[in-house]
């Protein structure tokens, strides 16, 4: 069978390219970085540096995009350049950066404020809800890479913050709340939270945050959790805010130093764990297992029955 030269798009194949490949956060970042590059093209070496991933990992994701007809590969001497396939640029750009987004986002934000004002009626007034919604949007927008979902993530983030604020300022209901904090909120804290949710269900409330959040949860983390049947769900990196610390009974930090404010009556733990960013899957598995042991130990101290 004759090999297909992927240096140029195959005639008639671009209509079959699957944009669902961009649902993977790493692949979406690759496409966005290429869009943002000065020449509209870049190399795997440069992408690996920007993504803080190993070159083989980036090469794997680039090949998927190449096979779907979304990228074009251009050898030039000892370098290989990657750019978006010319006839896919518009639709990829539209997917990653919807046209007219600022106005759309503002309209969505006003709806979020209205909806959450109803949801939290009797607890918070509209000005308070408005402040939290717009502040949450700004905090996420500072680090957003795939802005298509920024309004909906803002709704979730604002809801979580208002719920935490209500708990922090109101009466406790006896359900322990644990906050996991790491630097990027894309690795260790997400692993710990996913395992705790799987083990304890609704008997423990779980939150996560990062002192310097990444744009997405690392794909290698999702893979390591999937191997043991633990879903990550729709989790996303989010910045550390004051009210989630105040709402927590236990605050577990992992490599973020003194980023967490200290409040009396909270239990603070620091787990010394390697950051899985940029590490191969076998090492990430080891970190995952170390975190699981720590989580099970924490559950024992919370006197939560896990069977």
Automatic annotation (TrEMBL):
Report the PROSITE patterns cross-referenced here: HTH_ARSR_2 (PS50987)
Keyword entries, A-Z: Arsenical resistance
Q: Which InterPro entries match?
A: ArsR-like_HTH, HTH_ArsR_DNA-bd_dom, Phosphatase-like_N, Ptyr_pPase, Ptyr_pPase_sf, WH-like_DNA-bd_sf, WH_DNA-bd_sf
- What is the protein's name according to its record? Metalloregulator ArsR/SmtB family transcription factor
Domain annotation HTH arsR-type: ranges: 7-104
Q: Which organism is it from?
A: Lysinimonas soli
């Amino acid at each position: 069978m004759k090999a297909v030269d992927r240096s140029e798009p195959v005639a008639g194949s671009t209509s079959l390219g699957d944009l669902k490949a961009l649902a993977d956060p790493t692949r979406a970042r690759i496409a966005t970085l290429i869009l943002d590059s000065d020449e509209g093209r870049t190399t795997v070496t440069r992408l690996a540096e920007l993504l803080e991933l190993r070159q083989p990992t980036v090469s794997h994701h680039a090949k998927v995009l190449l096979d779907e007809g979304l990228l074009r590969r251009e050898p030039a001497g000892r370098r290989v350049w990657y750019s978006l396939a010319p006839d896919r640029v518009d639709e990829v750009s539209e997917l990653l950066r919807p046209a007219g987004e600022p106005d759309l986002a503002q309209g969505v934000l006003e709806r979020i404020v209205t909806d959450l004002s109803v949801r939290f009626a009797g607890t918070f007034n509209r000005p308070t809800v408005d402040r939290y919604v717009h502040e949450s949007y700004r905090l996420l927008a500072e680090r957003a890479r795939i802005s298509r979902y920024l309004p909906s993530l803002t709704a979730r983030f604002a809801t979580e913050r208002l719920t935490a604020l209500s708990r922090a300022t109101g009466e406790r209901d006896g359900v322990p709340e644990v906050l996991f904090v790491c630097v990027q909120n894309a690795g260790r804290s997400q692993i710990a939270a996913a395992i705790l949710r799987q083990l304890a269900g609704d008997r423990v409330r779980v939150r996560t945050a990062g002192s310097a959040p990444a744009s997405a949860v690392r794909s290698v983390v999702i893979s390591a959790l999937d191997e043991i049947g633990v879903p990550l769900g729709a989790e996303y990196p989010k910045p550390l805010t004051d009210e989630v610390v105040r709402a927590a009974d236990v605050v577990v930090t992992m490599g973020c130093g003194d980023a967490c404010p200290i409040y009396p009556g909270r239990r603070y733990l620091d787990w010394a764990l390697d950051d899985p960013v940029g590490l191969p899957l076998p090492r990430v598995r080891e970190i995952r297992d170390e975190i699981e042991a720590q989580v099970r130990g924490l559950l024992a101290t919370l006197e939560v029955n896990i069977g």
